[in-house]
Design brief:
The protein is 54% helix and 4% strand. The chain is elongated and about 65 Å long.
Length: 171
């Protein structure tokens, strides 16, 4: 059995103090179950950016690798020519699968990415790019583009996702 961290111990002390200060509580099995569920949700490890969208680099890295300005990268993200992901107000990260070996944007990426502009969750888009798809012979869209396969096929798969997304959000 592991030992609780200092912060975990502080959490238990805070809960204990709160219960001791209360004149009366309505703690029952349902409350215990709900608190346990909330604690599990709040303390579960969050998937890393890499788990969600694959290996990434920072804006500074991308500036160096591509030899362009930060403004050019920002414009490329806004124009759906490159995928940038950002958790909250954190720094921007860019999946490296979208770059060729000489640090250029993969051919066809803007065509595919542009079809997904209706999806405002860049992590979902990034995950989609690294997930195998039956309609791409079991390859991920990122791998499909890296292997210079037929871009129009990847565009069709992206259009299907966008259509499905719009149907769900319009309902």
């Amino acid at each position: 059995m592991r030992h609780l961290s200092t912060d975990e111990e502080r959490l238990l002390v805070a809960v204990r103090q709160r219960l001791l200060k209360a004149k009366k509580t309505h703690v029952n099995d349902a409350v215990i179950d709900e608190v346990t569920r909330l604690v599990s949700a709040l303390t579960a490890p969050r998937p890393s950016v890499v788990d969600q969208v694959g290996p990434v680099c920072s804006t500074a890295d991308l500036v160096d690798l591509m030899g362009v300005s930060r403004q050019a990268i920002n414009k490329a993200v806004k124009e759906f020519r490159i995928l940038g992901v950002r958790r909250g107000r954190g720094s921007w990260m860019y999946p490296t699968w979208q770059l060729t070996s000489d640090y250029q944007i993969l051919d066809g990426l803007p065509d595919v990415l542009g079809r997904l502009e209706c999806i405002d969750d860049s992590f979902a888009v990034g995950k989609w790019f690294i997930t195998a798809h039956r309609d791409l012979q079991g390859m991920s869209p990122a791998a499909w583009l890296r292997e210079e396969r037929d871009v129009s096929q990847a565009v069709r798969v992206a259009e299907n996702l966008a259509r499905h997304h719009r149907t769900r959000t319009d309902a």
